[in-house]
Prior knowledge:
Blueprint: E1 3-4, E2 43-50, H1 58-70, E3 78-82, H2 90-93, E4 103-104, E5 113-115, E6 118-122, H3 139-151, E7 158-164, H4 171-179, E8 184-189, H5 193-208, E9 213-218, E10 223-224, E11 231-232, H6 239-248, E12 252-255, H7 260-268, H8 279-295
Parallel strand pairs: 2-7, 2-8, 3-6, 3-7, 8-9, 9-12
Antiparallel strand pairs: 1-4, 5-6, 10-11
Amino acid sequence: MYRRLFSSAARRYHENPLGLPRQRAAPQIPRRTPPAKRGIPNVKKVLAVASGKGGVGKSTVAVNLAFALGMLPGRLRVGILDLDIFGPSVPMLMGLSHAGKPNLTEAGALLPVTNHGLATMSMGYLLPKGVDTAVVWRGLMVQKAVQQLLFDVDWKGLDVLVVDMPPGTGDVPLTLGQLVKVDGSVIVSTPQDVALTDVKKGIAMFRKVSVPVTGLVLNQSHFVCGNCTTPHYLFGSPDRFREAARLMGVDVLGELPLVPGVSEGGDSGVPYVLTGRNEVWNEVMRGVAEKVWASL
């Protein structure tokens, strides 16, 4: 028997921002000493997907990478956790914008919402209906909400949990890096120098909290028109990106071309990797998944 979120008796305050009917134990962030990292219940490997700047296609890459991992030989059990508290994108990208609030187990844990065979959890499911609903929380509330999303979800057993991070180096990535044993991270960028500058900050942040940086993904690296095979570098040559990765000592996992269908798939809630269209794009994404899984 499952319960619906939320219980009328549940209170929303800084210790329980999601309003869960029962608080489960979560690690606290001590004031002076580093917290002890722990695993996420029923999850073998945790992969963070991040970006230094918004608008580079990070969430789209995260969702498609989750499916690409699940398509590898052995059929890994994969889920995706959307930790973008203020601007969650996973519900729309997964075709779950109208999924409603998730059910709860008898123990008070959130049950993932599933579509296309992939289990998901997002702050977007917990907000009141209406696209204009905004989360207006200070840092402590955000930290507590992240803790609840990390430790109060019943994933039922996953090989890999892909965590879609908010852009930048704020409270959410720091909380994840301090509390959870993260097995790897992928940083997404576009070729522009302004995006690369923030990538360097993201790498520095992950290294500071001892999160392994698996590699970089260059999104929208080039465009190939339908009438020729010549790549057009709309946002600058990828050479600067490759050189920056080399100087930072980080691998480039793949360079995804700019394909209109990727955006269309996100808007329609059908991740592009599921369509099998554009062999080049899908081949690059499969290659990224293979490299990521080999490193975890």
